[in-house]
Amino acid sequence: MPRWRRNRGERVRGQGDGGRLDISHPRLDAADLGAELGARATLVQFSSAFCAPCRATRRVLGEVAGMVPGVTHVEIDAEARLELVRALGVLKTPTVLVLDTEGRVVRRAVGQPRKADVIAALGEAV
User: What residue spans carry the Basic and acidic residues bias annotation (predicted)?
Assistant: First the structure.
């Protein structure tokens, strides 16, 4: 079971901002995600092709996004978006980020989440 954690004041290498990206309060937009942000929150899932927990995570996040008005689920192929993966420090799939309305990462978890845990993590974003 994944542990949801808040972002810490870490800094990692990334594109833009002189090769550095502050992930203490990273902010993603529609161009980064390839999709529009949700009106209340966005669930971002980093997946890989042969990841069985990623398929289950896709189902759980899709169900939660369908249940909670204004919440969008966006799945990103980690292999196709290595620059973003590196900038955000994604090391394993599935990794799930919860974004608020402005695209700031408010929660992060690695591994297959339970539906109740996703709903609880959304509480900080909405």
Answer: 7-21
